[in-house]
Write a structure and sequence with these properties.
about 300 residues; alpha+beta; 8-stranded antiparallel β-sheet; two-stranded antiparallel sheet; 6 helices; about 25% helix
Length: about 300
């Protein structure tokens, strides 16, 4: 699943390509798993809005939208756009009114295999395309997700909140307060999106290695100095990964279809049995709360 660096890379790429453009119409597929908001609400919220900004919030891609006009409730109807595949059903429209303000948001969670593509309308529409937003520039934004773990939703008043704090923005003292005294393994605490949003399996493992902490170590046993090292390690790992376009594990690519390169810098993640790059001890793998964790038994305590 794409984590903070991958989502940040995709959001930056989308912003460069579509910010300032206008969404004229929306087509949505018939698979309900991908729609966290009602299809008609998504269509009504998106259509005839200007994309002011595309940014990341946690593991979500957020399109900040601007609308000219009053905040009157509008009847939410799906676009009459011709279905790109005549054999495929589109989502059924609902007549539920949607109160639309001057600012709204389109929120995309990529799940395991979701991709956001900016395409020319003449390009082939690939299988598992669940949404197409037609832009005033003539291009299209397409959401493709083979496994359908991704989710599309809207905040019609522009008030979406992802929960947790941003690891690249949180102050050191606040970071320490989030984790200090918790009896859970530090790896589980780092993955708790209600505490710290955007950090996933890859970057938790890499951060713990740089901080010299084992993933099973209870947070309550970590010293103040060790927490300071972890705070710096998390920021360092995430910033390095963003610079390298994220980690291309499985089928991740950015908004331009390019792979990331941070996987070449992994020191423990996915390296079970290989020698530690620091001390030459074999890397071990353990399972914590159903998630694989990788660590060096010599460098991490």
């Amino acid at each position: 699943m794409p984590e903070l660096p991958e989502v940040e890379t995709i959001a930056r790429g989308l912003h460069q390509r579509v910010a300032g453009d206008t969404i004229e119409s929306v087509w949505l597929g018939s698979k309900p798993q991908t729609m966290k908001s009602a299809p008609a609400e998504i269509a009504a919220t998106l259509e005839h809005t200007r994309i002011a900004q595309v940014r990341r919030m946690g593991k979500h891609i957020v399109f900040d939208l601007e609308r000219n006009g009053a905040r009157t409730p509008l009847s939410a109807n799906l676009s009459t756009r011709t279905d790109p595949d005549p054999k495929r059903k589109s989502a059924k429209p609902r007549k539920k009114p949607v109160a639309l303000g001057p600012h709204s948001q389109w929120i995309v969670h990529l799940g395991m295999t979701g991709r956001m593509l900016v395409c020319d309308p003449t390009e082939e529409i690939v299988k598992h395309t669940h949404a197409i937003a037609t832009l005033a520039s003539g291009r299209e934004i397409r959401f493709v997700d083979p496994r359908r773990f991704g989710r599309l939703s809207v905040a019609s008043q522009g008030d979406f909140e992802a929960g947790g704090v941003e690891p690249l923005e949180v102050e050191k003292q606040r970071f320490l307060e989030l984790f200090r005294g918790r009896k859970t393994p530090i790896k589980s605490a780092l993955l708790n999106q209600k505490l710290l949003r955007g950090v996933g399996n890859i970057y938790a493992d890499e951060s713990l290695f740089r901080a010299g902490l084992r993933p099973r170590r209870r947070a309550s046993t970590i010293t103040h100095e060790q927490f300071e090292s972890l705070y710096l390690a998390v920021r360092e790992v995430l910033q390095e990964a963003i610079k390298l376009g994220g980690s291309s594990i499985s089928d991740y690519v950015d908004a331009d279809g390019e792979a990331g390169f941070f996987q070449l810098q992994h020191r423990v993640y996915g390296r079970e049995g290989e020698l530690c790059l620091v001390c030459k001890t074999p890397i071990k793998r353990v399972v914590i709360a159903g998630r694989s964790s990788h660590y060096c038994p010599h460098c991490q305590k």
